[in-house]
Amino acid sequence: MPRKAAYSLATIQALPAQTVYASAEASKRQMLAAEAIIPSIDANEVYELSATLARIVGPQFHRDAGERVAGDALRADLVTLVLDLSARLALDGSEREGGAATPEDLAREIGVASKTLQRWRRAGLCAHWVIERGKPRVAIYRECLRQFAQQHRLEFARACNFRRFDAVERARMLDEGRALIAAGKTLNLAAKELAQRSGRSHEGVRLLFLRELGVQRTTRRGIHEHAGRFAERAWRMGIDPSRIAQRLDRSESLVRALVDRRRAELLRGVQPSWVEISTFELPGADETIPCAPAARKPQLLGLQDGDLLAVILSARALRAAFPRDGRAAADRDETRAAAMHYVLRRASRAIDALPKWPERSRIDQIETDLRTALRLREVLVERGLVIAWGRADHLCAGGPERLPSDELRMMARAIGNAVREIVTNFDPSRQRFDRAISLGADLALAKLVSTRRTARAAVRHASGLPMRVMGELAQWESLVEPPIVRRERVLAALGHGAALRSDNKDDAPLLARRYGWGGYAPTTVERLAEEDRTTVALMTKRLRDVENRFRG
Fold first, then answer.
1. Closest CA to 493 of 515, 518, 520, 523
2. Rounded to an integer, what distance in angstroms lies between the CA atom of residue 155 and that of residue 311?
3. 454-478: pLDDT as tens digits
4. Residue 514 in contact with residue 522, Cβ under 8 Å?
5. Per-position b or e across 382-395, b if 16+ CB within 10 A of its CB
6. Burial of 55 (0-12, 13-18, 19+ CB in 10 A)
């Protein structure tokens, strides 16, 4: 007998016990009513639970009208309710056209795995208890499956058309893959070529090769692979391409092409995640969402990171300076979050479309988009940390700085992890940023068992507690941040007029415009050249020279 299905909503879970004395006719009527409601439920909507259950149980159902639930949870629990109600009816499977079959038999009939049917049950495919040879079994009516297939045509067709590699095809694929790799192709390109020949998916063939072939040491690498790795590392360190070409005994144009190819390879390893918002598909979204004033000027608040005691004190000072109009601040947060998700979405799609030898301007645009998303995420994380430390002030009597060093560091790690996760997954169309941060911070702090709520003698910290609370904002951060430029020196030159090893006072603003520091938006080299009325080549050389002057 299969494991009993679990509910996620306590109100629906209590219904079978509340209606245990209902007649068979009433149970059947409730079961059919629930089945009729399931296809109309949208997984992405929110529903009033009492109104939905009143349509099943009847007007005698009384619950708090304010309880609202997500559509996916409601749909899954109604499927489980149908299964529980069917256990009272002594069904034999012949009540509907086509009869009923067990999930395993039905999966073999349509050519899918039985786990696929289990997944479809959460999406609205109803199952029932039927009596087969005197024993109760879970079965699915073929009529229910047909109705589900009509409502989910694409998913149903994709699952039915999927087929695994048989032994003969698998052996042939591996032999041809070894031959292509031995001829100099990469594992990915060999999988792509064989997928096109055989009509298989690229990802399926690639996973087969990774599982069986892996990265062979005897594989013949491309003649430019090692040179490309060396050239890209040297280029990131600010070395002129002409010197790299001289060192590798290759032409300067080839070195530049190898650097661009290596940059594209690194970008293909980036897997940015974003939240899809309905406004992304509207006409003109590319000109409006990432170009909003709040997104174009990602100015940091000024949280002093690097020392926990300084972080706590600066967070309090920043909270005191927060605007009284919270709605305006929330609008700015939501605008920045939407812009962050949009540029990540645009960069991800551009990465997928990169050819083997990409254009330099396309790579620069992708890196600029990732840099823009990083700046927006940095602003949101900083604002979230300020709010989260406010929640810590409420929790700890006298302030969190009264805690011992180890407990304070543990609290800082918990707050930082919670804030970064919330910012990464924040959906501005469904939440308010400050409320999401406050809730996440409260949950993270509640998990710290050692946090003391009662007042006690203050801990005296002889010195500061070095620790960065911002942490790593994205796994692709190192690809878009210049490794040789000291950001602190650039910001100091912008704000305090620090003396530079250059007579040009525009050096620091140029780097700030390029990388999005000091309230500027990240800019491509082509746009910088257009704004300064010069060529891309001259702007590239000027940027390299200025970066070397700010070498840290």
1. 518
2. 50
3. 435 456 666 677 888 888 888 888 8
4. yes
5. bbbbbbbbbbbbeb
6. middle
